[in-house]
Specification:
Blueprint (H helix, E strand, L loop, with lengths): L3 E7 L2 E6 L4 E4 L7 E2 L1 E2 L2 E2 L3 E6 L4 E6 L9 H6 L5 E7 L4 E9 L2 E7 L2 E6 L4 E5 L6 E4 L4 E8 L5 E8 L2 H6 L3 H10 L30
Antiparallel strand pairs: 1-2, 2-3, 3-4, 5-6, 7-8, 8-9, 9-10, 11-12, 12-13, 13-14, 15-16
């Protein structure tokens, strides 16, 4: 009944996050379970899911202030309202693993905790119960996103856009960002892009642009 924003599978069970603020389970021992709130707030902007065994689900919420399609707005406003939750599928209860994150965009269950990709701070975090987030990889050259377990051990990490000098510069210029967001269409912002819109109004962000000839 709504676009799917994240998927995860465990045995015969599939978890799907929907843009209408629901996470639903199909198949497996918790077939038909629907989760729709975390910490007293609607479960919106779910960016990633990962099963932690057959009876627990990790849920990454990118932002409390923007829906997923407005991720670019969250970056330009230096959003730090993301969170990661563990859902007990037996009881339906959700408990927070971390809050005030800069758009967690990937999550993976690991022994003793969870590995999380924090996009806006360009790093991977290890979350363990009762401990503050521990950086595992920092200052990545691109914005980290989804994580997936690799068949030979370790994990695959997707990075959806490279960091660029121009974007890094304007993220330190609040007056410019405010004017840009007020006066320019979001597709033409100086910001990461998932694809080119083939418009001559786009800012010069090509990865192969040359300087000084």
């Amino acid at each position: 009944e709504a676009p799917v924003t994240a998927l995860a599978a465990q045995g015969q069970a599939v978890a799907a996050a929907l843009a209408n603020g629901k996470v639903t389970i199909r198949g497996g021992p918790h077939d038909g379970l629907v989760l729709d709130a975390a910490g007293g707030r609607p479960l919106g902007c779910v960016t990633a899911l990962a099963f932690d065994g057959p009876h627990a689900l990790l849920i990454a919420v990118g932002s409390e202030t923007h829906p997923l399609e407005r991720w670019k707005h969250d970056l330009m406003q230096l959003g730090r309202s993301g969170s990661v939750w563990r859902a007990d599928l037996t009881t339906g209860a959700l408990s927070p693993l971390a809050r005030k994150l800069g758009f967690p965009f990937g999550v993976l269950a690991v022994e003793g905790g969870a590995l999380v990709a924090e996009s806006w701070r360009h790093r991977l975090l290890m979350l363990r119960d009762g401990r503050p987030p521990e950086p595992v990889l920092s200052d990545l050259p691109a914005y980290p996103a989804r994580l997936a377990r690799a068949s030979g051990g370790g994990a695959w990490l997707a990075m959806f856009a490279p960091r660029r000098q121009l974007t890094e510069f304007i993220l330190r210029e609040p007056a410019y960002r405010d004017a840009m967001m007020a006066e320019v269409e979001p597709d033409l912002w100086v910001a990461p892009a998932l694809k080119s819109n083939v418009s001559f109004f786009e800012p010069m962000q090509g990865g192969a642009l040359k300087q000084m000839g």
